[in-house]
């Protein structure tokens, strides 16, 4: 599952630099998680790093993005491949 930041977030900025996938970003009002990038830290750590550091426990699993560990690991592999790939291919003319 990807995780979700609830509106209890106090914008403390602690979680964003801890995410190994750069999935956390500051939204219009509070921090948010991009479910396409969140692997629940699978592939990097045993536990979700954002949950470990959040002082107000406002990062539950996102019921709209239920994924098993194998799916999360495939997402991790895809993100790794994208990170290693050269710049975004341009549109050929
Ligand atoms: S669980 Fe891990 S990958 Fe997902 S947002 Fe938190 S730190 Fe990032
Ligand atoms: S650690 Fe928790 S309270 Fe702090 S910015 Fe992240 S989600 Fe919000």
From TrEMBL:
A GO CC term attached to the entry: cytoplasm
Keywords: 4Fe-4S, Electron transport, Iron, Iron-sulfur, Metal-binding, Repeat, Transport
Organism: Rhodoferax antarcticus ANT.BR
Protein name: 4Fe-4S ferredoxin, iron-sulfur binding protein
MF (Gene Ontology): 4 iron, 4 sulfur cluster binding; metal ion binding
Domain 4Fe-4S ferredoxin-type: 1-24, 29-64
Keyword set includes Isomerase: no
InterPro entries, A to Z: 4Fe4S_Fe-S-bd, 4Fe4S_Fe_S_CS, PSI_iron-sulfur_center, YfhL-like
Protein origin, superkingdom: Bacteria
């Amino acid at each position: 599952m990807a995780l979700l930041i609830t509106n209890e977030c106090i914008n403390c900025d602690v979680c964003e630099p801890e995410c190994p996938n750069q999935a956390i970003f500051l939204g219009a009002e509070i921090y948010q998680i991009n479910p396409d990038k969140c692997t629940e830290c699978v592939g990097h750590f045993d536990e979700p790093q954002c949950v470990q550091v959040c002082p107000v426990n406002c990062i539950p699993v996102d019921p709209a993005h239920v994924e098993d560990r194998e799916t999360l690991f495939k997402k991790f592999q895809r993100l790794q491949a994208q990170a290693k790939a050269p710049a975004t291919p341009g549109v050929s003319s």
